[in-house]
Amino acid sequence: MESRTIVVGDVHGCYDELMDLLDQLGFGVNDRIVSVGDLVTKGPKNREVLELFMTDARFSTVIGNHDLALRRLWNGEELQLKPSQKQTHEELKAQKDRFIPYLNSLPFMIDLGSHLVVHAGLRPNVELLSQTTEDLTQIRTLGDDRESKDGTPWYDVYDGEKVVLFGHWPAPEPRRGRMALGLDTGCVYGHQLTAYTIETGELNSVPSRLAYASS
């Protein structure tokens, strides 16, 4: 059987739904999963998700803003955590020495050839090497506040050579730009977990088992 590269939206500790999605996809030994980041926070099984990505070579991920907050905290930075991040810190801190090397290894971008995987998005008309950490992990719109939901979405303007697969900004259906596809369909909020298969262009989704957080 030919191998597939399957890009998955924000997991946020939704381990059971990730297993449901892999079952639906018939995930095999030659397949590969790439996550758009935010493996942890808000959902019920953060440790299980981290363990899976750490121990199975078929799984890789870019770093999301919530993953990055834990990485920065555990590396000694002083920062104000959001409530969901504090909760995940308390849940995982006893084993943080196991998780730190993995979180430190995570890139901000994964190049799949025809596609780029980032957590939040790219600043249009800015070279890849000049993209900021903040844009890669937080951008939604192109106004003064990159995190604002009001304004022109970055993906409506982006027109790069590679299709960008991203998460961070949940929506009931995948967000679409001419050269971008958003895969965060709000699993942790009770909606669905979505995956995109590079080789076929196919989208697959499974429903959330529960709304674990309010958006």
Task: Write up this protein.
28% of the residues lie in helices and 18% in strands. α3 crosses α5. The chain has helices spanning 15-25, 46-55, 65-74, 83-92, 96-105, 133-138, 154-157; strands at residues 5-8, 32-35, 59-61, 109-111, 115-118, 163-166, 175-177, 180-182, 192-197, 203-207. The chain has a single domain, classed as Metallo-dependent phosphatases (Purple Acid Phosphatase, chain A, domain 2, 4-Layer Sandwich), CATH 3.60.21. With 215 residues, it is an alpha/beta fold. The strands form two sheets. Strands 3-2-1-9-10 form a five-stranded mixed beta sheet. A five-stranded mixed beta sheet has the order 4-5-6-8-7. It contains seven helices and ten strands. The mean pLDDT is 97. The relative contact order is 0.19.
Specify the number of helices.
Answer: 7
CATH class: Alpha Beta
Q: What is the number of domains?
A: 1
Q: Which regions have little confidence, pLDDT < 50, spanning 5+ residues?
A: none
Main-sheet strand order equals 3-2-1-9-10
Going by CATH, what is the homologous superfamily? Metallo-dependent phosphatases
Radius of gyration over alpha carbons? 16 Å
Architecture, CATH level 2? 4-Layer Sandwich
